[in-house]
């Protein structure tokens, strides 16, 4: 349910951002706002609490928007979330916003985990292969996990491509046990 609500608001924000030709600015504003809220437990509690009125929440949003130099469009959107009692879902809305933008721009976010760090040439090769596989431009977020022993694991949305030695050993172990 929360995902559906977030997607509805995110769709409206994408439409507004594209109409005003301010996609990058709004994206940056939302990223900064979500990061600020995530870093402050008190603010998270305030936004989640029904004790505080939408006006009180909007006052906090206005103060934070001023400190972050947010665009008026973005500030108004976040205030609208507060008015509708949806401000506690701002991170979900932002995540859905990014998903919709990626889809419209034919991009995919990839979480790549390898056993060792990769040099830029290897990363470029993997990027080309993933772009051919998905038919989209990919943005890779790579990390290292030595427990994988070797190989790589790529996650694109809910799909996982696991070519790690650890995964292969686990499969062999499972087959031998049966």
pLDDT averaged over residues: 94
Count of discrete alpha- or pi-helical segments spanning 4 or more residues: 8
Q: Can you tell me the CATH superfamily of the largest domain?
A: N-terminal domain of the delta subunit of the F1F0-ATP synthase
Biggest beta sheet summary: 4 strands, mixed
The tally of domains stands at 2
Q: Tell me the name of the CATH class of the largest domain.
A: Mainly Alpha
What is the C-alpha radius of gyration, as a whole number of Å? 20 Å
How would you characterize the overall build of this protein?
The protein has 178 residues and is α+β, with helices and mostly antiparallel strands. It contains eight helices and four strands. The chain folds into two domains: 2-102, N-terminal domain of the delta subunit of the F1F0-ATP synthase (Peroxidase, domain 1), CATH 1.10.520; 107-177, Glutaredoxin, CATH 3.40.30.
Describe the structure concisely for a colleague.
By secondary structure, the protein is α+β, with helices and mostly antiparallel strands.
């Amino acid at each position: 349910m929360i995902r559906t609500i977030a997607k509805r608001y995110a769709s409206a924000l994408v439409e507004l951002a594209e109409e005003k030709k301010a996609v990058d600015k709004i994206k940056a504003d939302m990223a900064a706002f979500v990061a600020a809220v995530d870093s402050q437990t008190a603010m998270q509690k305030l936004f989640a609490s029904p004790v505080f009125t939408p006006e009180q929440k909007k006052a906090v949003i206005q103060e934070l928007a001023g400190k972050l130099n947010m665009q008026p469009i973005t500030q108004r959107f976040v205030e609208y979330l507060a008015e509708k009692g949806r401000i506690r879902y701002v991170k979900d809305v932002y995540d859905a916003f990014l998903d919709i933008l990626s889809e419209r721009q034919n991009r995919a976010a990839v979480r790549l985990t390898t056993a060792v760090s990769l040099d830029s040439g290897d990363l470029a090769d993997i990027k080309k292969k993933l772009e051919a596989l998905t038919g989209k431009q990919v943005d890779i977020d790579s990390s290292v996990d030595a427990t994988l022993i070797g190989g790589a694991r790529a996650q694109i949305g809910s799909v996982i491509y696991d070519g790690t030695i650890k995964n292969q050993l686990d499969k062999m172990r499972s087959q031998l046990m049966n």
